[in-house]
UniProtKB/TrEMBL annotation:
Superkingdom as given in the UniProt entry: Bacteria
Regions annotated as coiled coil: none
Cross-referenced Gene3D superfamilies: Aldolase class I
Chain ranges of the Radical SAM core domain: 21-235
Signal peptide: none
Cofactors that this protein relies on: [4Fe-4S] cluster
Keywords for the protein's UniProt record, in alphabetical order: 4Fe-4S, Iron, Iron-sulfur, Metal-binding, S-adenosyl-L-methionine
Organism of derivation: Vogesella fluminis
Protein name: Anaerobic ribonucleoside-triphosphate reductase activating protein
Amino acid sequence: MNAAPAEHARIGGWQPFSACDWPGKLVAVVFLAGCPWRCGYCHNPQLLQRRHGERSWPQLRTQLQQRRGLLDGVVFSGGEPLAEPALPALLDEVRGMGFATGLHTGGSHPDRLQRILPLLDWVGLDIKTLPEHYPAITTVTGSGERVDASLDLLLAHGTAFECRSTIHPALHDDASLALLAERLSRRGVRHYAWQLLRPGRQLPQHFAPIMPGWPGAGLQQAVAAHFARFELRQG
């Protein structure tokens, strides 16, 4: 990926204040357009195509500068932010404003992640399923191996991070959730979260509403025992 200036970033939107996108931090979230994967339950399908973003960084830069002292940091999300050639320049500018920098990523570009890790204070890595099941979700061969490589980088680099899995009974059963958690724990993951898949018009018809009480308390307790911090988020 050839680096691009920040002004060339394709921005699909932003959230001025969020207390739930970086645990323990009050942040702004910048959504970058473009993603190489095509997960059928994507919550932001309008951000899949990079051309759907706008080159609006100069205006957003001014708004962020006005929030210095009010925010702890800025999180880049998507879409898939690693697909944005201007991401290194964006991170540089945000750090120059005095903000901590965070990233939400699916781990699709481990080579690009490696290059920007020195610019990041925290990463939220999406773990969709077991590696061998990834192509059925992303429609991309080898996507599970890319996520594995991204996790290896985070574990080796020492950047603060958490893994999170968006879960739904149409995608996961109790056995696969338990196995996924066990594998992550064995790799060295210390912070893990489940996020219930949000209902919405974008969901395929076979994604029925999640029944109250799923996943069960016993499974949650068993999974929590593997991690220093574990939580179930409502999406």
